[in-house]
Amino acid sequence: MRPEVNRNVLVHDADISEFFREAVTSAMQNQGIGASPNVEAYLVGLLAEYLSAERLVSREAFLHKPLCELLAEARGSVPGERVRKLKEIGDTALYVAGYFGDAVEKRGVDLDYYIEMGGGAYGAVASQMRSRTGGCAFDELYGELSDRFPKLVDILGEVSESALGRTNTDVVRLYERWQRTRSVWLSRKLQSHGLFPTPATDLLH
């Protein structure tokens, strides 16, 4: 007897991927950020993957150690395991900083820490790929993920607001985050609250 295919699940998965594809494309257009098709597809895949409850549980356990400690462990691993661990760190840092950035900061964690660790992990993956293959599409993909990590965090941040229907009520926290990152997207969000930040002017004092 052939196993029955759950078509509802297949349709659901397709709908979720399409939703995130449209959300990522829209966020990139809104923020004036360009990225290669491979990076755009990577973001969509990452967002869809994290909808899995099992995946979220594994990530929660994964983050019991500081990212800097995990990064050190990854760099001391054998080559194949090293790449897997580094990718895991980059993916986790990108998703957490982008999709749950506000929650992270409310817990007193500096978002720049995630950006530095995640970007560094992706950069190390690109370096490993380059040394093992002499250059390939994956080398370019992870190099771009590393170089554009802060902007990709902003993209996932906008997707998060779209998906969760959130509104930013903490303008002071938003402004403090903009002060550290000088993000164009955050600047535009402040403008939507009637604030027009400039590097030389503290608009809240």
Concise synopsis of the structure shown:
With 205 residues, this protein is mostly helical.
The rounded Rg comes to 18 Å
Let me know the average pLDDT.
76
Q: Major sheet: size, sense and barrel closure?
A: none
Distance between the termini: 72 Å
Number of contiguous helices: 11
Global shape: globular
Helix content: over 70%
Strand content: under 5%
Structurally, how many domains make up the residues? 2
> Are there runs of 5+ residues with pLDDT below 50, and where?
1-12, 200-205
Judged by helices, strands and strand pairing, the structural class is mainly alpha
N-to-C SSE string, H for helix and E for strand: HHHHHHHHHHH
Count of distinct strands = 0
List keywords for this structure.
205 residues, mainly alpha, 2 domains, 11 helices, 75% helix, globular, disordered N terminus, disordered C terminus
SSE blueprint and pairings:
Layout: H1 7-31, H2 37-49, H3 53-62, H4 67-75, H5 79-99, H6 101-106, H7 111-133, H8 137-147, H9 149-164, H10 171-181, H11 184-192
